[in-house]
Amino acid sequence: MDMMLDTPPEVQRIYYAMLAEKTFSERALLTQALSARARLVSQAGIRAQYPSYTEEEVKLEYVKRITTREEFNALFPKA
């Protein structure tokens, strides 16, 4: 499924060609950077929604949002 719904097909082809030229390690680094940015954006949204939260509470809420209830409870049984 193509996720670039707002991008012209020619630009998509150029982008995918650029990615195809990268090594596995380079693509892994790009993926890691994108993941880090997504985490920061998500945490910024949590801060906007809950301005009184401490940084610890923001991180806890983030983990709660990206895990199942069972996973969260296993990781933080006292939370």
What does this structure look like?
- Helices cover 73% and strands 0% of the residues.
- Helix 2 (24-49) packs across helix 3 (55-66).
- The chain is elongated and about 50 Å long.
- It has helices at residues 9-21, 24-49, 55-66, 69-75.
- The chain is mostly helical and 79 residues long.
Low-confidence stretches: none
Number of helices: 4
Helix content: over 70%
Mean pLDDT comes to 95
Q: What's the SSE pattern? A: HHHH
Produce the secondary structure layout.
Elements: H1 9-21, H2 24-49, H3 55-66, H4 69-75
Helix pairs in contact: 2-3
Quick overview of this protein structure:
The chain is mainly alpha-helical and 79 residues long.
Which short descriptors sum up this protein?
single chain; 79 residues; 4 helices; 73% helix
